[in-house]
Amino acid sequence: MNRDLFEKARAVRERAHAPYSKFHVGAAILSEAGAVHVGANVENASYPEGCCAETSAISAMVAASELGPGRRIAEITVVADRIEGRLTTPCGGCRQRLAEFSGPATPVHVIDPGGEGRTWRMDELLPAAFAMDETS
User: What b/e sequence results for 91-113 when a residue is b if at least 16 CB atoms lie within 10 Å of its CB, and e otherwise?
Assistant: First the structure.
């Protein structure tokens, strides 16, 4: 686990806007250029029009970066409470978004607020991701 990414994801999780679900999620992305970008989930009354933490972090990365390695994910950490004792992995939509900005071997750390978790490779979480082109 990347301790810095965990601490940043856990801290931004506290700023999530989750008035309906009360389920706060934080994400921290390390880009291939070495920059860290964070995001928290943002809900609104017109489900499902909110933003997941992973989507928010990707958006921050894109907004801060030129094309190239600054827009590619090297590693990501997602911090959320467990549900019925199980770690909360990224939803299907976020898995696809993460796959489009990373590679099959990109580590995805899924950690509870206490620091316990597991790491998956992107291709383990989404083994049949849609590709942007035949070489992706």
Answer: eeebbebbbebbeeebbbbbbeb
Q: Which of 32, 43, 54, 75 is catalytic?
A: 54
Q: What is the pTM of this model?
A: 0.92
Residues contacting residue 111 through CB under 8 Å, at least 6 positions apart: 1, 6, 9, 10, 77, 78, 79, 87, 117
Contacts of 4 (CB under 8 A, 6+ apart): 28, 36
Domains of the chain as residue ranges with CATH: 3-125 (3.40.140.10)
Model pLDDT for residues 69-119, shown as the tens digit of each residue: 889 999 999 999 999 999 999 999 999 999 999 999 999 999 999 999 999
| 7 carries an active-site annotation | no
Burial of 5 (0-12, 13-18, 19+ CB in 10 A): buried
